[in-house]
Design brief:
Elements (H helix, E strand, L loop, with lengths): L2 H11 L3 H21 L3 H10 L12 H12 L4 H9 L12 H21 L10 H9 L9 H11 L3 H12 L14
Helix pairs in contact: 1-3, 2-3, 2-6, 2-9, 3-5, 4-5, 5-6, 6-8, 6-9, 7-9
């Protein structure tokens, strides 16, 4: 499958602008980690881009991500991609995160959403956003309250990366596509 195929599938099932931006952010982080780890950038990018493509239609567990997994299977996506996407759902106990691919998706998913929330409340958006600023917001449980902090904590533990480095890495991965994410600096 090509990225064009992935995008066509995403747009077929998702019209929520914020959800699409989230999947683009996770794709960027996954591609950056694939480069860092010497893995298949296109495969990792597909996992990041499509991990929530079914969420708008089937937001309730276990429909998400099982409905999406069935669609991916019917369209010929490889089992490794399907498994990684299923493994980002903690409630699917038969899909533990085993591979580096699985663990990286889980580590990037909630964090990319949280970074986006942090950037949106700053005039400079992603520009100049630091790990210390993100960590400060993580402590404010009322800020971006729907983001599961324990997923971020568990993700860095499972991926065996330092939280500050992981935050900085994801910010850096998202910066080249800041315009696509709606995270370019605003006029003051």
């Amino acid at each position: 499958m090509s990225r064009a195929d992935d995008l066509a599938l995403l747009w077929e099932y998702t019209d929520s602008e914020s959800l699409i931006k989230h999947m683009l952010a996770v794709e960027a982080a996954m591609r950056a980690y694939a480069r860092r780890f010497g893995e298949d950038e296109d495969q990792w990018g597909t996992v990041g881009l499509l991990h929530d493509f079914d969420y708008q239609r089937w937001p309730n567990p276990p429909d998400h991500p099982l409905q999406g997994a069935a669609i991916l299977k019917s369209r010929g996506y490889p089992d490794e991609i399907i498994y990684a996407i299923k493994s980002h759902a903690d409630y699917l106990t038969d899909c533990p995160r085993l591979s580096r691919l699985d663990k990286t998706l889980y580590a990037c998913d909630e964090l990319c959403g949280f970074i986006t929330a942090c950037a949106l409340v700053r005039p400079q958006r992603l520009e100049g956003l630091t790990p210390s600023s993100v960590k400060k917001k993580l402590k404010q449980l009322s800020f971006a309250a729907s983001i599961h902090r324990e997923d971020i904590t568990n993700g860095v533990r499972d991926l065996e990366v330092d939280l500050d480095e992981h935050i900085a890495f994801c910010i850096s991965a998202m910066q080249p596509i800041a315009a696509d994410l709606g995270l370019v600096p605003t006029a003051e």
